[in-house]
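Please check this one:

***
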Amino acid sequence: MPALFPTGQMKRYLVIRSLQSLLALLAISVIAFAMSHLTGSPVDAMLPDDAGPEEAARLTKLWGLDRPLYEQYFVFLGNALQGNFGDSIKWQGQTAFGLVLERLPATIQLGGFAIIVSTIIALPVGVLAAVYKDTPFDSAGKLVALLGQAMPNFWLGIVLIWIFAVHLNWLPTSGRGGFSHMVLPAIAMGWFQVAAFMRLTRSAMLEVLDSEYIKLARIKGVPERRVIWVHALKNAAIAPLTYFGVIAGSIFTGSVVIETVFAWPGTGLLAIDAIRGRDFPVIQAVVVTFAGVFIVANLIVDTLYAYLDPRIRYQ
């Protein structure tokens, strides 16, 4: 059983993983800065059609866009380390990070619900597909997984709106509200992860169910339900747990498309509006925030994984 407090190897492992996470975040900040500038100058979007070159030059200097790109990046990095991504260009009078924090609860609400839906569906179906291998239930699970990984989430979202909102009128088409407003976007956002999580759980359970200690437990007369849901699932959970960090990160970052389809007022929709308005500070704040969520989620999973499997600490 893993020690409750970190050992020397565990501390070293955590330090290395933390440094790797910081380097990844630094690299992402460079990419976010460079990609946001590829959309063109925000001055062009801010000025009226009849504005002259003098007005364009004034705004360019005001926003610091006349400096070399490397100077702009170091200014951006220094401010970002202090939690300051600058003022929004599109939303006058508001800070970029303030806008992200304002919209982030909506994204967390939807993403958290999508993760819950994915886990509730994928985990039991994956376990049962392994238990009833090569049966019609297993074949149906494989079909669900195939369809889930083949369908783009934006297309699935549009189909769900067409069926359940337009034709059946059971659920709202868009906007943020109560539980009913979260159902369709959460399913569309998490369905791909349901397929991947289910297949991973099935594969891990098949390997564990064929192990010697499971056979021994059955010989000793341990109830089959306890063998499957306690002994087997506990040991098969390492592989799905590893992927859970990817699920959490990808669901939050994948909110850009789904929030646009369902007009959900979160950071994903904010990113799209910022790209259209060439709002560099907001784009950079959104990308770095999403990257931070993804990296922290994977760092937590790596830490839990190292506790479950001590061999990871030596790699």
Summary: Confidence is low (pLDDT under 50) at residues 1-5. The radius of gyration is 24 Å.
